[in-house]
Amino acid sequence: MRFRVEAWSPEYGAAGEATVTPTAVQVEVAVERPASRWEPLPPDPARAATGPVLFVDGVRRVDARIWITGADGTVPGVCASWAAGVVEAHGGEARLVVARVGRGCVSGSGVAAPIVTPYGTWLPHGAAAADAEALLQAVHELMARTEVEAAEDALVGRDAEPFVVVDGTLRERTHLRAAVGLVKSHTVAYLPEPLHVLVDRLAPGERTPVFLIGTSWTRYSWYLRLPGGDDAPWSGVVRGECPGTLAPAEAVAAAERAAATLPRFASEPHKDPRAPQNLYPIAGLERLLRRRLGDAALAYRALRRVARS
Fold this sequence. Notes:
The protein is of the alpha/beta class. An eleven-stranded mixed sheet has the order 2-11-12-13-9-8-3-4-5-7-6, sandwiched between helices. A two-stranded parallel sheet has the order 1-10. It starts with 15 loop residues before the first strand and ends with a helix. The longest helix has 24 residues, at about 130-155. The chain has helices at about 130-155, 195, 250-260, 280-295, 295-309, and strands spanning about 15-20, 25-30, 55-70, 75-90, 95-105, 115, 120-125, 165, 180-185, 185-190, 210-215, 220-225, 235-245. The chain has five helices and 13 strands. The chain has two domains: about 5-50 and about 160-280, no CATH class; about 60-160 and about 295-309, no CATH class.
């Protein structure tokens, strides 16, 4: 028997599922070239970003699960903290340029007033429903909104448009024209089977041609294999995204720039359990942002004290 172990740590799920779900959404594969001419495309070093590269990411944490009693009865909620920021990488160095922290009390019925503690203030926010999934989705959306604000702040006053890499999908961020989304894990097969198998054949640094995904929002996409993975089928594979409002030639240029730029930021397994997909600047930004959230135990105790008062 022969088996292979992915470098991607199992605590984060799977980087690429053994069996991904075929998608029923509209996919146009002939953006860059017709399907009959699809093949792995090597990077062009001349396309690499020469100026600063901005990496955008966010983190979130549930500080306490609570019950809120009001005129309509008792409903569940969560107190959560989140942070988002931007790291600029240029000339072999990386620096934090923007960091924002938010705290909120989220419930399906809404909260009438903020929860004020010596540790911080949790502002009221609503969720679409009161179940656990809806509450966590509301927290995620608050973090995503903060990511957009951080990215917009980082772009103010720049003479040239930098290359922007957003950790995760570009949903709700498509107005950031210079941005590329970086999706690290895969559960949906966007490509038809004859083209989907091409992803297995990608060598480090190679990408697929660009294709167009049409769902509730439209974006261009491509697959790229980063260096440093093992021989598992989708090891080191990320999916890039750019706004569907771009011209096809602009989308291809974004894919070329990503393929020529991102491999040098790929992490290594002995330094990151999500290597190589969790790029070094993003991993460093996550650590900085988690520190900005403060101590989870202190936040929990502060909320309990106010609840008892």
